[in-house]
Amino acid sequence: MFNKFVFIFVFLSVLAAKAQDFVGEIEQLDPDMALYISKESKIKVLANGFSWAEGPVWVPKLNGILFTDVPKNKAYLWTERQGVSLFLNPSGMTNHAPHSSSEGANGLVLDSNGVLVLCQHGDRRVARLKGDWQLEPPSYETVVDRFEGKWLNSPNDLVFSKNGDLFFTDPPYGLDQQDDDSLKELDFNGIFKWSKNEGIVLLDKTLSRPNGIAFSRDEKTVYIGNSDRKNLIIAAFDYLDGALKNKRVFFDAKNISRKGPGSFDGLKVHSSGTIFATGPGGVLVISQEGKHLGTIRPGKATANCAFDEAEDYLYLTSTDVLARIKLNK
Question: For residue 100, is it within any domain?
Answer without folding.
Answer: yes
